[in-house]
């Protein structure tokens, strides 16, 4: 067994911090101020050691090399937080229920395809929670057409989502809500049903790069992503997301995220961190 190296220092130099901050900004839109140096060290020092580097100078040199392209993705994953759970921020799923039952039911019953996007899906709990909400609200529509796009920048975390298998302790909310009809228990694992899994397509996507689709959606969950961006990058994201929402559709953000002057993007606030598309606004790509 190979020993994990000990780093030469317990801090990161200004030069190395600028390299890491520059990669994070250019690759994923993540804005890191000087105040984040301690956070950066704590998030990536273990990664540096695991990959066999004895110091940040070596690691940063590798990041900037042609061979470091894959490691740049791992760096971004280490800097961000993949914290999620089933039905996290339950008020958003209540809004989605109202949208499905009150605004969309008739249109979907007549054959319109439902489209929902989980834009930072992490390990998939959010996407599966969306799918189970759809089944709960629209089970009486015999030939329902529904597609859920689940995207994330982290390829490794997407693999977990595709498996649709979670420790039972992580799925406690499913037991509490009595909705295990959409999944089954196997030993200490909760396995999502084939019907639920077929509804979801997991894809890797970097939100600050051009999006390889032109689809519009009835609802978009984009939660706890914009907290990593500066104001300019946030505004570009809001414009791009608004341009992908049908009129009357809804956008749900994380608990500490807000759109300043949502009318610029054809949106209006209607609930906790929730916005409705009310006009075309200024579409941004």
From TrEMBL:
PROSITE patterns attached to this UniProt entry: CHER (PS50123)
Reactions mediated catalytically: L-glutamyl-[protein] + S-adenosyl-L-methionine = [protein]-L-glutamate 5-O-methyl ester + S-adenosyl-L-homocysteine
Function recorded in the entry: Methylation of the membrane-bound methyl-accepting chemotaxis proteins (MCP) to form gamma-glutamyl methyl ester residues in MCP.
Superkingdom field: Bacteria
Origin organism lineage: Bacteria, Pseudomonadati, Pseudomonadota, Alphaproteobacteria, Acetobacterales
Enzyme class, broadest EC rank: transferase
SMART domains found in the cross-reference section: MeTrc
EC number(s) stated in the UniProt entry for this protein: 2.1.1.80
Occurrences of domain CheR-type methyltransferase (ranges): 11-280
The keyword Aminoacyl-tRNA synthetase is assigned to this record: no
Presence of keyword Methyltransferase: yes
Keyword vocabulary terms for this entry: Methyltransferase, S-adenosyl-L-methionine, Transferase
Protein name (record): Chemotaxis protein methyltransferase
């Amino acid at each position: 067994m190979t020993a994990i190296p000990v780093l030469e220092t317990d801090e990161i130099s200004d030069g190395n911090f600028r390299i890491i901050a520059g990669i994070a900004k250019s690759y994923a839109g993540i804005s890191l101020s000087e105040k984040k140096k301690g956070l950066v060290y704590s998030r990536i020092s273990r990664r540096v050691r695991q990959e066999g580097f004895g110091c940040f100078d070596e690691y940063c040199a590798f990041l900037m090399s042609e061979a470091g392209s894959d490691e740049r993705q791992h760096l971004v994953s280490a800097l961000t937080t993949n914290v999620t759970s089933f039905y996290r921020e339950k008020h958003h799923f209540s809004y989605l229920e109202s949208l499905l039952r009150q605004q969309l039911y008739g249109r979907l019953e007549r054959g319109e395809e439902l489209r929902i996007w989980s834009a930072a899906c992490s390990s998939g709990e959010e996407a599966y929670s969306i799918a189970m909400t759809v089944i709960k609200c629209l089970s009486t529509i015999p030939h329902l057409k529904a597609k859920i796009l689940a995207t994330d920048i982290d390829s490794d975390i997407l693999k977990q989502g595709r498996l649709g298998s979670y420790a039972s302790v992580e799925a406690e909310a499913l037991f509490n809500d009595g909705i295990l009809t959409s999944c089954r228990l196997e030993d200490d694992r909760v396995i999502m049903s084939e019907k639920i899994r077929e509804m979801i397509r997991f894809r890797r996507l970097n939100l600050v790069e051009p999006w390889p689709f032109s689809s519009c959606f009835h609802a978009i969950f984009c939660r706890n992503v914009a907290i990593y961006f500066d104001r300019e990058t946030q505004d570009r994201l809001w414009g791009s997301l608004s341009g992908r929402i049908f009129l009357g559709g809804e956008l749900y953000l994380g608990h500490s995220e807000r759109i300043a002057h949502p009318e610029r993007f054809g949106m209006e606030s209607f609930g906790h961190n929730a916005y409705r598309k009310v006009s075309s606004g200024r579409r941004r790509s």
